[in-house]
Amino acid sequence: MEPILSVNNLKKYFPVFGGIFLRRRGWVYAVDDVSFDVFPGETLGLVGESGCGKTTLGRCIMGLYASTGGKIRFQGRNLDKRDRGQLKAMRLKMQMIFQDPFESLNSRHTVREILEEKYRIHGVGNNELDRHLAALLKTVGLSPRALSRFPHEFSGGQRQRIGIARAISLEPDLIVCDEPVSALDVSVQSQILNLLLTLQQDMGLTFLFISHDLSVVRHVSDRIAVMYLGRIVEMADRDDLFATPSHPYTQALLSAIPIADPTAPKQRIILEGEIPSPENPPAGCRFHTRCPSAMAVCRRKEPVFKPLNGKDGTHFAACHLL
Ligand code: SF4
User: Is any atom of ligand 1 closer than 6 Å to the C-beta of 317?
Assistant: First the structure.
């Protein structure tokens, strides 16, 4: 099967300015040589700690940040920033759901104006707009009466439903979900996740699902990629990743997930120290400053991201131990 989205060697570096003349004094290596495919109808979960580059990666895919290097192909075509017409057409088929539903909705616009906005921007006509908007709200579990109200009149969960309505309004093929439930109460999170799963089935959507929460990612994903300091360190089918996590960082993340059975054996791996600054990533393996299994070679040689033996090319990791 051909991937709907291919990301190849993607890089995004942000310049850092300093001194009295505000000269560039370095770079923040937010995303550094990341490659993966997403296949039609699947959900690829992208997980990692805050600051690992996962949101930057999603924003590069959406064209909200210009990438520093690498290629992004969507539905078999390069997303070339020089061809604005082609970019605009492709963006109709790619949408994003943001972390903070309140920040991502214009507080001075009614829901109707928010949902109309995309039709106007992309030159879609006004025919039967009212009926279409009412059906759209019903699809995400809101009443058509919501059209005349403002974002501050809704709860967090309802605002995220409006954000989802905006994302699906033009029937996209791919949605980048950037921490779509992390700002919500736990009781509301599952409702929003189930709504996303229902929409995926009904509309044949493909998701790139970004989250720091492995439990959430496990619930929605078919495959999972684990990111650390701008790089993907492990990628596998969901069940395989949870059954046999191979990279020491993935093992530490999984060990921190609470389990319901207090009698079940569990050994939490505590990582020492903070995630290093992406402005000055460690040489060799980027995880060596916190890895409980680090060896001398890890400090000088970068491990290759490669398929693991006996996994039929579905489980990849970057570690000298593997
Ligand atoms: Fe740990 Fe070395 Fe593997 Fe990096 S390469 S994860 S430091 S064992």
Answer: no
